[in-house]
Amino acid sequence: MSGPAGEASGLTVVGVRHHSPACAGLVRRTIERLRLAYVLIEGPADFNPYLADLALDHELPVAIFSFRANERGSAASYTPFCVFSPEWQALVSGRAAGAEILFCDLPAWDPAFGERRNRYADPHGARAEAAERALAAALGAEDQDALWDALAEAAPPAELPARLAGYFDLLRPPGTDDPVEEARERFMAAHAAWALGEASGRPVVLVCGGWHADAIRRYAGLADGTRPEPREPEEGLRTGSYVVPYSYPRLDRFSGYSAGMPSPGYYERVAAGGLAAGADWASDAISAALRAAGQVVSTADRIAWAVHAEGLARLRAHPAVLRADLIDGALASLVKDALDAPPAWTASAAVPGHPALAAMLQALAGTREGRLAPGTRRPALVADVEERLRAAGLEPGAGRRRIALDWAEAADRPRAHLLHRLLVLGLPGVSRSEGPDLAEPGLPRESFDIAPHPHWPGALIEASQWGGTLAMAATARLAARIEAAPDSLSVLAGALSDALFAGLAIEGELLARLSRGIAEGHDPAGLGAAGRRIVRLHRFGAAFGGAARPALARLCLALAERALGLVEAIADPRASLAAIDLMIACRDLFRDCADDLPGLAPLRPPFVAMLGRRLADRQAPPALAGAALGFLVACGEAGAGADEAARRLRRFGLPDSLGDFLAGLFALAREEIAGEPTLASVEGLVAAWGDEDFLRALPSLRMAFAWFPPRERERIAVAILRRSGAGEARAEAEALSWMRQRTAPLDQAAALAREARAAARLARYGLT
Amino acid sequence: MARAGRARTEGEARQRPPAEIVHAEELARLTAEDTAPRPPGWRLSLQGVRRFICGDRPDAAKVVCAPALVERAMVTLATSRALLLIGEPGTAKSLLSELLAAAISGSSTLTIQGGAALTEDQIRYGWNYALLVSEGPSERALVPGALHRGMREGRLVRFEEITRCPLEVQDSLLSVLSDRVLAVPELTGEAGMVYAREGFNLIATANTRDRGVNEMSAALKRRFGFETVFPIADAAAERELVRREAGRLLARSGVPHAPDPDVLDLLVTCFRELREAVDAEGTGLEKLSAVMSTAEAVSVAHAIGVKAHFLRGDAGRPEDIVACLAGTAAKDDAEDLARLRRYLDQRVAGRKGEGWRELYAARHLLTPQ
Question: Does A339 contact B at CB distance below 8 Å?
Answer without folding.
Answer: yes
